[in-house]
Amino acid sequence: MSHDHHGHAHGATPTDGRRLALVLVLIVAFLVVEVVVGILASSVALLADAAHMLVDAVALTLSLVAFRLAARPAGGAMTFGLRRVEILSAQANGITLLVLAGLVVYEGVQRLIDPPDVGGPSVLVVAAIGAVVNIVALWILHGANRESLNVEGSYQHVLMDLLGSIAALIAGAVIVATGADRADAIAALVVAVLMLRSAWGLIRATGRVLLEAAPEGLDPDEIG
Question: What is the C-alpha separation between 219 and 127, in angstroms, rounded?
Answer without folding.
Answer: 44
